[in-house]
Amino acid sequence: MFQMTNEQDYESTRNRYIPEKIEGDMDSIRPEVKKFYSSQGSKISDKSHNQETTDLHKCISWIHRCTPDHERTNLCVLVTGALGGRFDHEAANINILYLFSDMRIVLLSDDCLIQLLPKTHKHEIYIESSVEGPHCGLFPVGAPSGSTTTTGLKWNLSEAKMRFGSMISTSNIVHAEKVTVQSDADLLWTISLRNLT
């Protein structure tokens, strides 16, 4: 029986996922990695002249520009490795959710995900219980909520007032396959991810 070595497995995975474009200030990409992806046809976009935005901001901005307005609401951008490191980086990544609120961007870590629920409409969140939950939370970042109502949670909110320095919804439990959220403020939704290893 043939068994792949770790190096073969790494190379197989690397060769399967070739990005169309690599964009950023290029201060953290190793030269051999840059050379490899360039040789595979990836376009390298060096934005080192722009130090006012993060690499993630540069990438999401490119996706935003390339996506027609009418398609943005159907697009879902998954950002892996967005949480669990330096807090200033995490805060900058969360800020991206607000800067590009007309797109659905999901920040992923090993143990949770975060996405923005804009106040513009009622949200229906379908829970993938095989990988998500049960713990969840809702946070009014940027402005307090004078009225937030939910369904599908163990401890539902009914026109609840939330703000930092007062009540926020943390350590709640998803109790149904569908959670609904309606609020007069933009909210961050977070839900735990199950360890599948």
TrEMBL record:
Its main location: cytoplasm. GO terms for biological process: thiamine diphosphate biosynthetic process; thiamine metabolic process. SUPFAM superfamilies: Thiamin pyrophosphokinase, catalytic domain (SSF63999), Thiamin pyrophosphokinase, substrate-binding domain (SSF63862). SMART domains: TPK_B1_binding (SM00983). Gene3D superfamilies: Thiamin pyrophosphokinase, catalytic domain (3.40.50.10240), Thiamin pyrophosphokinase, thiamin-binding domain (2.60.120.320). Keywords: ATP-binding, Kinase, Nucleotide-binding, Transferase. Catalyzes the phosphorylation of thiamine to thiamine pyrophosphate (TPP). TPP is an active cofactor for enzymes involved in glycolysis and energy production. Plant leaves require high levels of TPP for photosynthesis and carbohydrate metabolism. This is thiamine diphosphokinase. It comes from Oryza meyeriana var. granulata.
